# Entry
Amino acid sequence: MENTTAADTRPRHHWVVRVTHWVNVLAVVLMTGSGFRIFNAYPGFARKGETFCCYPFEGTPIPAWMTFGGWLAGGRNWHFAAMWLLVLNGLIYLAFIYLHGEWRDLVPRRGHVRDSWEMAKFYLFLRKTHPRQGKHNALQRGAYFAMPIVGLLLVLTGLAIWKPVQLGVLTTMFGGYVWARYWHFVATWLLVLLSVVHVFMVLAVDPYSIRAMVTGRYKDSWSPETRNARPFVHLLPGRDSATGVDRQPGPS
# Structure
């Protein structure tokens, strides 16, 4: 990436979006690692003497390098501390994008399935040119729209297994303590999967967006649509990601 000045760029992310984004990264990492540490204290869903239908790895702990907190009590302390950070940060973010109108860039539009398929075709080399997009393409919209929903599921199932007696109605809604714990685990992995794919696509297709999430500014010539960018292929100097032949120089 070559140096550019503020005059060359335009605003892309409000400072509230940028701050809540990076706070969310910290909170999710802490909650996921500490949650896996808690899970490892009893790496299964069936109560002792019973069986559980839907988890083939019953009794198998999460690899230690993916956990955080050192032991059960440490994991619980970090988990609950990060929970309040995640909830408060999420509420600030959702309130801002609603009041500021940025939700319009994240909610799937009419024809979302069709547009998502066109993006998938482009990434699979079944389409030569990048589909037209706004701030985010259809696949990004779907992922960004799903994340708060998965986050809400995590919060509700977490409350259900934290206070199964006091919040018995909520726990029952998820099928009881065992099932609430299971859905909490599934939602965790969904959030991890969405986050990993998000990070991969940022690094592989739109690395310029990292600068935008720090400075808040972006350049139209950096966009994947303008660069016809597929994962990593566009990084080859002087080559078109659709055909592999020489093309005009990349963004400056």
